[in-house]
Amino acid sequence: MKVEQIYTGCLAHAAYYIESKGEAAVFDPLREVQPYIDRAQIDNAEIKYVFETHFHADFVSGHLDLQKKTGATIVFGPNARPSYEALIATDGQVFHVGDYKVKVIHTPGHTMESTTYLLIDENDQMHGIITGDTLFIGDVGRPDLAQHVVSDLTEEKLASHLFDSLRNKIMPLPDHLIVYPNHGAGSACGKMMSKETTDTLGHQKEVNYALRADMTREEFIKELLTGLTAPPGYFPQNVLMNIQGYESLDDIMERGTQPLSAEAFEAAANETGALVMDTRDAEEFAKGFIPNSINIGLDGNFAQWVGEMIPDVKQPILMVIEPGREEEAVTRLSRVGYDNTLGFLKGGFDTWKASGKDVETTRRVTVEEVVEEFGKGQLPLVIDVRKKSEYDSEHLVDAVNIPLNEINRHLAEIPRDKPFLLHCAGGYRSMIASSILKQRGWDNFADITGGFDELKETPLPRTDYICPSTLL
């Protein structure tokens, strides 16, 4: 049986495509559906079903557009209550895709409608399981997301459901089955996912902490809930979009890719209160940018950081983009529900600069410049915007940790009356932080190019860095 995994690294997301005898099915598609349609055309196949494992939180699924464009039937598992036409399957129901079979296994826990799909080949042999966010490689789905939509679904209740789903529905299945999860390392839907994107169920039973055979329900709940960080604010909004429906991507692309002159761009920003998002490389942004714009570079985990830093998916957005990448930017925004893009600056930042309008810069320094400037004295305050787990592993002595996704809640802790340095791991996140601070009126700081990765390699005026684990 051939199962094609279509992996999108910036979201750590996996969709799946199967085809047999001219019939195809897609599982958990992304927002832009043309690649799936093109894939089916290569096989001269008709997309018969769009299977959804659950109402996703970290991205907006493409199931509605795929249904409209192909006539495919949308399938959810038990307990799903979408606001649009879909087939709500029963536990154990079997669907036919050519000579293949897809069997519904209801596995509540991550959410109450969460469903695993058992794939059965043309010889009636079980091949694998498409697990959605029920079972990852090395982890299982976090049980705290649904409570942000339905308040009485506590994380403890969902974790208990997940314990039963894993023990009673997943673990009894044969060891040879291939596990096809919805996400890999880097997704916020779990806490310790592997970089591997498939594995056998048997191996997962051996190495996945959540599948230990001797684990009690109480131990499972405690281990699953320990170490969970707050989910990004856009997650509940994406869930509602997936439940209630959304605007066609074709309309969003038409609106979002409108080219605007510098004058029209400025007028639109003033009239709509739109956020000006600059998606260029951090180094280019630092040299010059439109006042009050925010830098989130396309060449990084763009969609995830937009979701972390912009709380409302309905926020109007105007884009400053490297010419030629406009469709990419709008598409990647739409994947996480940011559909209100109003256009982009035609010709990019050069157009703004040539118009004679105000331009701002922000300071970046290399590690060598830090050593040269402060080599005879103490470093100023250093703010580390990496995740707490990164900071706990290694950090500069006396550095203050304010994770980027928490910076807006800790502005009062950042001095205005004395200089400071910012850094992340490599310079991507620290420039996001720099642009936010510039927007809020801070000016007496510098961002360290290369971040902690280069800081570790260079002798500094005081003890280089500390790895807390070595002090135990």
From TrEMBL:
SMART domains: Lactamase_B, RHOD. Keywords: Metal-binding. InterPro entries: Metallo-B-lactamas (IPR001279), Mito_Persulfide_Diox (IPR051682), POD-like_MBL-fold (IPR044528), Rhodanese-like_dom (IPR001763), Rhodanese-like_dom_sf (IPR036873), RibonucZ/Hydroxyglut_hydro (IPR036866). Residues 270-361, 376-464 form the Rhodanese domain. The keyword Metal-binding applies. Pfam families: Lactamase_B (PF00753), Rhodanese (PF00581). Coiled coil: none annotated. This is MBL fold metallo-hydrolase. It comes from Robiginitalea marina. The lineage of its organism: Bacteria, Pseudomonadati, Bacteroidota, Flavobacteriia, Flavobacteriales.
